[in-house]
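Following up on my earlier message about 1,3-dihydroxyacetonephosphate. Here are the inputs again, as you asked, copied directly from the submission form:
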Amino acid sequence: MALVTMKEILDDARKRGYGVGAFNINNLEFLKAIVEAAEEEKSPVIVAVSEGAMNYAGIEYLAELVKVAAGKVSIPLALHVDHGKHWEVIVSAIRHGFTSVMIDASDKSFEENVEITSKVVDLAHAVGVTVEAEIGRLRGVEDIVNVSEREAVLTDPREAKEFVELTGVDALAVAVGTSHGAYKFKGEPKLDIQRIRKIRELVQIPLVLHGASGVIPEIVELAERYGAKLKGARGVPDDQIKEAIKAGIAKINIDTDLRLSFLAGVREYLHENPDIFDPRKYLGEGMKFVKETVRMKMRLFGSSGKA
Ligand code: G3H
Ligand code: 13P
Ligand code: ZN
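Thanks, got it. Here's what our run produced:
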């Protein structure tokens, strides 16, 4: 099936009250794991590519791989830029066939964010590409938005409404207590579910939860058993993800859980098979772990069986 837009996928999710995962890829193994999981679960899926992934693999390699993958399956699949920070990256992604883009100017002032986002919306909508933007700042994401934990700002519902009206954006990422990576909470994990509800009341477009990985304890344990050092790693518990979807989240971004799953699979395999040096063996094991994690997420989000 040809690639579809993020909007097509999320409009159905919003209407029917389920969430759709946006899973990050950097290479063939993660892509195959995600797409095979989606096909087996009969779930729509969003494949996300960050600027870091483009720098690592090359945008043309990743875009073509995803198009090949989409052609092999029957589920709706969108190819999405994750945290696009640069105009040239957005333009290049659209040229390479991405069906949706995130423009992340959440580290700028409200006015600048509106101006930058509107420019991207104009370009993208002219060619049928849908746009996600972000308002508010996630905690602990120095590497992505250059703000410190102290400067984190949860999304103001009225500002969100004004932002959507001014920009015409198709999906909105909100800051409600999550952060990227494996160390999300020092104390008890807590999302501001009430804030999601308020935003949802005022904003009619699908809402996006970044930093949504669960940092699955069993996976962390397994990786640590085989040498990883991940002390203090903690993510968003499954029940809070369910609550967030009920409150109005439609797109859920997952990267860290895939990284940790891959790591656990590869570490275990290499430890158990010290004589093996064929990369297809250990990368294949990592891929199996990623696939299983994606399948679990699709069931958790309620997207299984919806394609
Ligand atoms: O939210 C960001 C994603 O986890 C991508 O991370 O910029 O290291 O590729 P990255
Ligand atoms: P995690 O680090 O929680 O997986 O979040 C990923 C993300 O938000 C990608 O945009
Ligand atoms: Zn993110």
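One observation from looking it over: Residues 24, 50, 52-53, 82-83, 144, 180, 255 surround glyceraldehyde-3-phosphate (ligand 1) (CB under 6 Å). Hope that helps, and feel free to reply on this thread.
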